[in-house]
Amino acid sequence: MSKESELYKMKRTIVSTMFDASISVLFFLDSSLNLYAVRIETNFIKLLARGVMSISFFTTKKLCYYRLYSHMNCYEVDLPIKRYYFDEQFDYSALQLINNTLVIFKEPNMKSIHLSEVIIFNPNIHHHHSDY
Predict the structure, then answer these.
(1) Could you give the CA distance from residue 33 to residue 80 in angstroms, rounded to a whole number?
(2) Close Cβ partners of 96 (under 8 Å, ≥ 6 residues apart)
(3) What is the pLDDT of residues 77-105, one digit of tens each?
(4) Are β-strands 102-105 and 92-97 bridged in parallel, bridged antiparallel, or unpaired?
(5) Which pLDDT belongs to residue 74?
(6) Would you call 115 helix, strand, or coil by DSSP?
(7) What's the pLDDT tens digit per position in 8-22?
(8) Higher confidence at residue 16 or residue 109?
(9) Residue 80 pairs with which residues in a beta bridge?
(10) What is the separation, in whole angstroms, between the first and last Cα of the chain?
(11) Where are the chain's structural domains?
(12) Is the Cα dihedral 54, 50, 105, 22 positive or negative?
């Protein structure tokens, strides 16, 4: 098995990087706040967004919101998440679960999020009854 190294020279200053080994993609942010992705297997580089000031992401156990050069908030979750979005201007989070249920919540001081603590909209359910 041979090991190869490739050297990239870019006309930009990289201020932050993250590598996702599960999909072999390197993400990097340059000093102009442009977010790029590099597919390691093909060396394909794509500009994902300009003017990036924050990033929201999730793992199997946590939701995280990272305000660049400032702070990161992470919450433990027990939900099967498909997509996560945090809106800093209005201070709310939205989750799309694997079954396409939409979950919206606004609670910046929470440490963990459980199914019983959030408002849930599921297009497959026509009536909602609550015990509380």
Answers:
(1) 31
(2) 81, 82, 83, 84, 102, 103
(3) 777 888 888 887 777 888 888 888 888 87
(4) antiparallel
(5) 80
(6) helix
(7) 666 788 888 888 787
(8) 16
(9) none
(10) 61
(11) 11-52, 54-131
(12) negative
